[in-house]
Design brief:
Layout: H1 2-25, H2 32-45, H3 47-58
Length: 62
């Protein structure tokens, strides 16, 4: 059941997150180096809150 709940929370959250990231990227100056750094940082930033959440989903119930 935790996997289903996790999927129901995680999938929409990631879709919204990436939508916001792409929308904000449209407002960055037209500088390839800046956009590269921006997408590297935002591409990795979603993992920080997601990894503990996935670990919770995979953990066996007590």
């Amino acid at each position: 059941m935790k996997k289903l709940i996790g999927l129901a929370v995680l999938a929409p959250a990631l879709i919204v997150y990436f939508g916001v990231v792409v929308t904000l990227a449209d407002h960055l100056p037209d500088n390839a180096a800046l956009k590269l750094v921006y997408f590297i940082v935002t591409g990795l930033a979603w993992a920080a809150p997601t990894i503990p959440f996935i670990r919770w989903m995979e953990r066996e119930p007590r």
